[in-house]
Structures are given as structure tokens and as C-alpha cells.
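In this section we walk through a basic example: taking a raw amino acid sequence and producing a predicted 3D structure, encoded as C-alpha cells. The instruction is simple. Fold the sequence below.
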Amino acid sequence: MARPLDVVVVGGGIVGLATAAAVLETRPGLRLLVVEKEAQIATHQTGRNSGVLHSGIYYRPGTLKARLGVEGRVAMVRFCQEFGIAHETCGKVIVALDEAELVRVDTLLDHAAANGVRAERIGVERLHELEPYATGIGGILVHDTGIVDFVDVARTLAAQVVAKGAEVRLSTRVLDVLESDHGVVVETDDGPIETRTLVNCAGLQCDEVARRVLGREPDLRIIPFRGEYHELVPERRFLVNNLVYPVPDPELPFLGVHLTRDVHGGVHVGPNAVLALSREGYRWRAVEWREVSRLVRYPGFRKMARRFWKVGIHEVRRSVRKRSMVAALRRLVPEIRTSDLVAAPAGVRAQAVARDGRLLDDFELRETDRAVHVLNAPSPAATASLLIGREIANRLVTRL
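The resulting C-alpha cell sequence is shown next.
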């Protein structure tokens, strides 16, 4: 029999590839394999987002998001500089529309100070200097926010992994995972793979992989939320200089509808946050009835739904009525018209929800004897991916 591999990473998104690269940097020469079910890397969350390098202003001090997000942004900028990947630290404005939001601005500025993020309060005049078409009564200028193409980053990481003697195997679907005292057997549609250790970076499917390793349901579940984007038509891109965000609702892990310039010159607007009826439900017609049935039986989903049903209806309205999306955008940039928007590819956020209905707001890394599981890695996971990879590598090498 062939000698088992040292490490198998499940998932060819930016977190999985960053983890593979970090493991090989920590322990050169390890026999490592990345398995990805799609025919390309970075197909899902990595390739379906607004391409923002997040500063770390939103995250509670002391959390993994705060530490890995802030340090990860710095590491990502250095990585892009080293490998010639297009990026820009352009800054963004967070716009307060009323006095209640100005109070929440104070909390964000406290987080910025604690996390080491460069940010400052601005008034109306400064807001209009930065974003002439935005409206509001003040807000925050976040100097450390930027933009990048995360797919380019993922491609570079994949090339590094291969250059170090490892393999990225595409079109390979994981069917089952069996962990024992002797190692891990990963059953795939291309045959079994034996390994000493496993890293679960399966994104939208991470809880399913964990369930197979544990032999039981974990105490959380991934609930997919579709984020639907539009783009400004080219002749109306002048309405946004860089990035314009609302003050977020502290009860939700979503940042609200915003406007973001990308490195290719376009301007993304959105997203909303609509419950997807499939793990990879990028359109309304993508429905997996078995998944829907399992979802409604999950107590965490029912408790979450009771708490946020009004928010959910509002998000659905923005999905099915373009005018509702435009109305949300016009609160930030009043001159936006319905004809200014064209549809863009949607993304699906893998949001972990606990059995008590809580939407997990921090990264969630769990360990078993021979595996590390990434069970909640929504935004800013792409920004923090290099640091998440190092964190996992440090935990993994103790098992080797």
C-alpha cells in the first residue's frame, strides 16, 4: 500500500490554499494534497464577493476576526506587492444618516482604536469632499480599507503550493471521511485517500465534512445566505469614488447594502442577504428540497427565523423588487436611478448558526485528534486568509 499523505486540505478556496501554503512553509517537504470538488479553484465564496480588503474596524477587540483580520490585511497587502497582484488601499467612508447611527459610530471608532485600525470621525463637509454624491450627517473615514481581486490571490497561492511539490486536485468530490487512531481516510469519487491529518476548509459544506469526521451533527449548522449584487453602468460610475458603506446593524453579522469600486474599474452595489434554498443557491430557482427539509428541522434555524423574520422579509423584498434595492442605495447616494444598475453574479455566504439561534460572529476553528475544521469563516476571511492559514498550520504541525 502507498504511504499515507501527511496532510489533506479539503477545499480549494482562498482559505484552503492559504492553509496549504502555510503548512508547506512551516514544514517543507510534507506530502500534502488539496482536494476541490469544482473544476477550478476559488469558485464559490472566494470568487463571488466585492473584493474588499477589510480594515478590522467592525470586529470586537480580542476576537479572532479582530486579530487575524487586522494582521491579515497587512500580510495580504505585502503578498500582493511581492507577487504583483493588483490592489489598492483606497479607504472608505461609513456614512451615518441620523443621530442614532452617530452613536454607533462611537462604538466603531472604539473598535478601530483597540484593533489598531487607522480611522477618523468626519463631518458633512469632509464626507462630501471624499464622496461628493453621498449624503449623511457625518461618519467615519477608514484609511486602512482597500480592494483586491481575491481570485488572483488564490491562483498565486495555488501556484506556490504546486511549486513546493504538493498537488491541487480538482473535480474531486469528498463523499465521506473516517478518522481513527491511525489516520484519516478521505473517500472521494476518485477513490480513497489516506492521510495522517486533515484540514476542513470546505466552506459551504464544512459542517457536512465535520459531521462525517465526528460521526454526529456538530453543535452548529451552515445556513446559506445569498448576497445579490448589481453593478453601476459605466457612465454612472462617477457617483462613487471609492467605497461607501452604511453604519451596520450591531444585531446582524452583515454590513448592509454598500457601494464598492473594484480593481478592474467597476462599481459593485449590494449585497442583500436572502436565505438560499440550496448550499450553492446562486439563483432563486436553485432549490434542494432535502436541504430545505433538514434546514427547517434544525432548531437553530427556527429560533433564528423567529427573531429575524421581519429582517428576512425586507431582504426578500429587495431581492424581488429592484426598486427596493435602489431605495436602499439612494439613502447613501440619492442620485442613483433604477436604470443605473445591471445584474452581477451573486454570492452565497456560509453563515454558521448555533442550536440556540445565534449567528456566530467570529471565526470558528475546531480541532479533533487528527483534524482542524474551519466551521465559520465569512467576511473578512478572504482578507484574513493568510493569517488563518498560519493559525491552522501552527495547530496542525503539533499533530505531525
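Looking at the output, two observations stand out. DSSP finds ten helices and 22 strands in the chain. The mean pLDDT is 95. In the next section we compare this with other chains.
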